Amino acid sequence: MTSTVDTSKPDLDQRRAELANRLDHLLPAGTLLTHAEELRPFECDALSAYRRQPLMVAMPKTVTEVQAVLRTCHDMDVPVVARGAGTGLSGGALPLEQGVLLNLSRMDQVLEVDVPNRLARVQPGVRNLHISDHVARHGLYYAPDPSSQIACSIGGNVAENAGGVHCLKYGLTVHNVASVAVVTIDGELIRLGGAGLDASGYDLLALIHGSEGLLAVIVEITVRLLPKPVHAQVAVGAFTRVDEAGDAVASIIASGILPAGLEMMDRGCIEAVNAFLDVGYPDCAGLVLCELDGTEAEVKSQIEAVSQILRDSGATEVTVSRTEEERLKLWSGRKAAFPAVGRLAPDYYCMDGTIPRRHLARVLNEIKILSERYGLSVVNVFHAGDGNMHPLILYDANMEGELERAEKLGGKILEACVEAGGTITGEHGVGIEKIDQMCVQFSTIELQQFHDLKAAFDPRGLLNPGKAVPTLARCAEFGAMHVHGGQLPFPDLERF
Amino acid sequence: MPDLELVGNHSDTDLTEPLQSAVCSAIAERQSLEIIGSGSKRFLGREPSGVRLGLAGHRGIIRYEPSELVLTARSGTPVDEIESELARHGQMMAFEPPRFGKGATLGGTMACNLSGPRRAFAGATRDFVLGTRLINGKGEVARFGGEVMKNVAGYDVSRLMAGAMGTLGLLLDVSLKVLPFPAIERSLIFELDEQGALLRMTRYAGRPLPISAAAWCAGVMYLRLSGSESGVAAACSDLGGDELPCDAASAFWDALREQQLTAFSGDGVLWRLSVPPATGPLSLDGEAIIDWGGALRWLRTDVDPVRIRQVADEAGGHAVAFRDGDRSGSIFQPMDKALTQLHRRVKDALDPHGLFNPGRMYAEL
Ligand SMILES: Cc1cc2nc3c(=O)[nH]c(=O)nc-3n(C[C@H](O)[C@H](O)[C@H](O)COP(=O)(O)OP(=O)(O)OC[C@H]3O[C@@H](n4cnc5c(N)ncnc54)[C@H](O)[C@@H]3O)c2cc1C
Predict the structure, then answer these.
(1) Domains in chain B: boundaries
(2) Domain B262-323 belongs in CATH node 3.30.70
(3) Is B113–A200 a contact, with Cβ atoms under 8 angstroms apart?
(4) Are A155 and A125 within 8 A, CB to CB?
(5) pTM reported for the whole predicted model
(6) Block means of pLDDT (10 residues each) for chain B, length 365 residues?
(7) Mutating which of B152, B179, B341 best tests the A interface, going by the most A Cβ atoms within 10 A?
């Protein structure tokens, strides 16, 4: 899968000149960036520890331009990395030195809103939140709400199958997209899905979700819209023990209530948030936030039931929002969790393992032990309703060796998640970051199956090579890495 | 190679190994296979071919954790068995899979991706798939996805299996997200013509109402509301209409789901048209049954298939000759060249020898 292009400096310059020469004719002026200083902003996504300059950046505005770029790259055997807003947390949009970074953020138009069918046809660079804003006057919204929704692009959401606080009830991106148009590496435009509730043929629409730019470039998305719930309330329960909080989550689910959001924070996170803004969360070991939405009558009866469950599970304090203002205030702490934690240490590293909920207490305990062993603090905030954990490892990149330790600790946490019957990534994707842990979660047969599927779309392996699915050779070496402990066997791969 | 129906000695039997060796022998003998559960959906798709490999013996619920909302079962497990186990814990497969006959299995349900009336409001089979274990066309056992709600490690191969009509792999077990039964369900009826019903359904769908099914048949629109007692009561008084007694209501929704309403029978082909829900009455002769809030139209008719596919296509949907069509021709809506080639390559990636259910879905696959 790796490109055979020689990447020594003079060769790269020549390659850049040749390719730029061809692309210049195909793209409008100003949409092809080749100078080092113009390329700098595109060196990384939100996993900024990994950086690399692309050969050049192409910023198409139309589907035809995307097709032209891909056709040319295919022709010249140049790899292509698609990029949306660059908010990815796993290095999925990390450029390749010898490759084109295809920046789709200029394709940012809402093309059509079909109110009767509750669909919006949009370009890939449209920001997630912009869709809901755009259709709000029809009483509709787009449900998946990643915390990065002000910034992240809908194309990136599809490529990562992004989730959000409300996906327990309303589903992930894959459940809320009716169709996409994609361009394959040879420049072919293909439509997947349809305007009804299903389409003929294989569910390639599902396959594109979470494909991290390895199968095709997404150039248009038709999302499903939902009517805005008329009413929402949140109940917040404080617990003196984290396992009690975990049990409360399980009891809420088992009671037959399906909350719109069900989130949890541990002490480290609560303290960070309280210090960061005036939300006044109680001082406790675990906090559960449970949101109910629907009609007023529906919410009223369920919020009472949830409050009772929280109390029965041992909550020392239960707060229920009485007004929309109070609701937003109670959520503000959860929403600010990442920036708040960001003040605890110079750097933090966000993990994304997902586990069966019943193992929550066990895995949290393992994280605690690992955190002590590696000498780095970990605070926890998670989408408890669906078992998606976000342990945040605190470290200081300027301290000798801390980066490596953080990375190793992260790897161990993910392995603990797999062992508990879970997965290394619930929503942030594998990218370059978790590529070694893929070897832990999948067998050689399964990884080979992924490569075969990739080849069905992209036989020459030009789209985002080296991401998401490790080569079998890499896994063999990763196994060796465990044996030799401590040695980093990939000198060609930039580490923190 | 003779037809093979592997039998377990009880309702909890893992036949992975014998199934794997059957697949490997088939590869060695260059013999294609017809994968069959109970046969309840054998009428669907193009003419089956190949030696029959029965999976009904590979059965049993492997894990079910009500507080996780996750159930994992072997593909030969009867849907009825799963539903009654779920019901004991107040839960359900929210996509209301139609059985279409005795013994319908989980594997067949998944392979056909068929879903009942709740589909438009809760999601289809494919939406509830969390993971699968399967035998691919090289005779290898592989697991994709898992038993957690969110999982983006690797391509979503398990969801790809939903609706592939068994042409991409032999499903061994399936993990599903399940949901709690609503506390209460009430059904309302309204006398309306087709056009009126479609307009009404579209209007309601744009409002945050606790609707869990919306159908129209023979001049009557049926609405089902699900949720908490007070929430449903509030919606009922808001919407008006006449309330169906509980028994009559569940009889209707069951008959719709299992295609036992009289309008499903008759002469001609039973067409299934999947279209954007707000599409007006189709310009085709014959009276449709409408489900999924307008997104699904069933029609018994002799109209030329070309014309039917054109109507579906123009509406932005697709048509399937669901029952009594020409099974040597096209059953599913034909695809364009680029998409067909991509399908061909995906098929090759999973089933390079063309072992599983050849031609059952499309002649080329
Ligand atoms: C503070 C913060 C909070 C976050 N919270 C969440 C959260 O709650 N839930 C969640 O799921 N994620 C979250 N994320 C992660 C991130 O926002 C999502 O993964 C998002 O979907 C990425 O979108 P993007 O447009 O930024 O994509 P990018 O980062 O630009 O790209 C991500 C991947 O998608 C590919 N890609 C992008 N666009 C296309 C396209 N058009 N066609 C093909 N491939 C493409 C890229 O090659 C890359 O592999 C968070 C990130 C941050 C920084």
Answers:
(1) 4-180+346-350, 184-257, 262-323
(2) yes
(3) no
(4) yes
(5) 0.95
(6) 81 95 97 97 97 96 94 98 97 97 96 97 97 98 95 97 98 97 96 98 95 97 94 94 97 98 95 98 94 98 96 97 97 97 98 97 96
(7) B152
